Amino acid sequence: MKQETGRNSDAGPKKWAKRALRVVLPLLLGGFVLYWVYRDFDFEQALRVLRGGIDWRWMSLSLFFGVLSHVLRGWRWRLALEPLGTPLPRHSHCVDSIFVSYAASLVLPRVGEVSRCGLLSRYDGVSFSKSLGTVVTERVVDTLCTLLIAGIAFVSQMPVFFTFFSQTGTKIPSFGHLLSSPWFYVSLFSVAGVVVLLCYLLRALSFFERVRGVAQNVWEGVMSLRRVRNVPLFLAYTVGMWLCYYLHFYLTFFCFSFTSGLSALAGLVMFVGGTFAVVVPTPNGAGPWHFAVITMMMLYGVSDTDSSVFALIVHAVQTLLVIVLGLYGWLHLAVSSGGGERR
Predict the structure, then answer these.
(1) Residue 312 falls within a domain, yes or no?
(2) What is the model's pTM?
């Protein structure tokens, strides 16, 4: 008995250490990239722009589309949940869960995908494992959309992408330049972060597979897309959601005098770069997103300082929106459910 007690006492600190690492490592990764990108930056310039160099009308319109993108994602998710034979959640609860999931991912990247399933299970009695399967399906659909958008951007702005690869040290024939480029090491750390995240997800999946019945429920959720009753509406939500994501980013160009002249295609290129950058497991893509947007914006003639100001302010405002929506979603879920839970 004493030996078992000793093991249990050791398991507690180890478990807490693993949890702490899952929080600290993404912060360290994002902090490292941010430090590297802004190590010589004059933050007084950003303050001067904040005091009088932003057109907040355009920023407000951008934020509106940011909110609408989350709303459309929540409505689309409800369509995927309909065929599962599980209690159907309210539209508002699906949207609130999306709000909370994005905010939760600021603390621990990608945990939001699990947390939103847990919220619907708690407040609406939706099967956790089945709803998790629909999230997997959603991510497959969104990955295909991302690749399609990236393909359009690449074909329409191919010279810009080739210049980007060359200047960031990712041009394959120039191996010596690759090793001497500081941006190569930024990219290397980012890729390492993605690999660590994938290893963690695979371990989590192997744990779920050992639980009887869970894997089958997850698979049922994955296949739910085949039985969606209103496929045109599902596709409309998907197109609308991605259009809102793009407008959420592109409209911020008109907030600043030094980016207001950039074209919609330039916005599409930077949107694609930022979308791939947020795959790196840092809070809201902090660091890699800044690196991608700043580097690509400079290719369109915007100065290093102005590009850095743009990325710093836009990312901060959009992250603040995620926090506010997360708090709202959490409170609205509790209030609209009367503080109770579905058993």
Answers:
(1) yes
(2) 0.79
